Amino acid sequence: MTAQSDDLAVLADDAHRRGVSLSTALGELVLARAAQLRQQRRPRLGTFKSGSTVGIAALMESNPDAPAAQPFRS
Length: 74
Known about the structure:
This protein is mostly helical.
């Protein structure tokens, strides 16, 4: 791991004030960043509003490029 000495000094001072080792403080930072990256990778579901009520079946039928409906079980 590489970092600027000034940045490490700030983290070391913070760790000392909290009574933990620098490695513990660095581990907390890695944990927080990993959690942030995991959260960003989660799929997001979008919503939209139209001027009227639209049924998904009617919408699919009106789109010639839509995939054909297939049952879950055959």
